[in-house]
Amino acid sequence: MTGQICYLKLNRDVKVQDTKVTVAGVAEVFCGDKGMGERIKELQVVGFDGREKKRCIISVMRIMEIITKACPNIVIESIGEADVLIEYAPEKQAGIVRKCSIFLKIAFVCLISFFGTAFTIMAYHNDIGISQVFAGIHEIIMEEEVQGVSVLEISYSIGLALGIILFFNHFGKKKITSDPTPIEVEMYKYETDVNAAIVETAEREGNHTND
User: Fold this and answer.
1) Distances (CA, A) of 122 to 5, 127, 146
2) How many domains does the chain have?
3) Most buried among 16, 86, 121, 164, by the most CB within 10 A?
4) Residue range of the domain that includes 127
5) Measured in Å, how far apart are the chain's first and last C-alpha atoms?
6) Helix (H) / strand (E) containing 122
7) For position 42, which CATH number holds?
8) Sequence-separated (6 or more) residues with CB below 8 Å from residue 132
9) Which pLDDT value is given to residue 4?
10) Is the pTM of this model over 0.70?
11) DSSP sequence for 164-202
């Protein structure tokens, strides 16, 4: 085993349901000796009591220490993250109360998003006087005053809806293209910022898991 090289690619964050977290659960491992590689993957890096949701941060240095203790003389090359955020979230039974709670939360968010967005669009259009603008354009082109709803307003409304669908790249459960939607991109940025803040806070407070 002398001089064997092991490549370790640590993940940025992982979510687990097992109380025993192994190297394979937090990183990708490649080793020329397949037997050694499998042994490394089975090494435990942290354990949870299984009673409640918890988070911890493991440094790549700690994982390298665990590996070298189990496999002396091994050479470890880290090509991933410096720290991994591990969130233990035990699976809960989805009872009727929980299902109803989830449904109500989703319905509440949908209603807030729909009416909030509608109010914002209407307030913006009222602020810039879009009706007067359309009426002026209609009078200039048709040389007559607009009566009721004009074709410009109908076309604008349809175009606005299509523009929103194309921008968010999503309609119902289907994507228009394979590219990530703007919401997915923003959620990724948000998760990255949150994880970075948690890691930095843990470093300042000295809360890295070293046991």
Assistant:
1) 63, 8, 20
2) 2
3) 86
4) 96-203
5) 26
6) helix 96-128
7) 2.60.480.10
8) none
9) 83
10) no
11) HHHHHTEETTEESSSSPPHHHHHHHHHHHHHHHHHHHHH
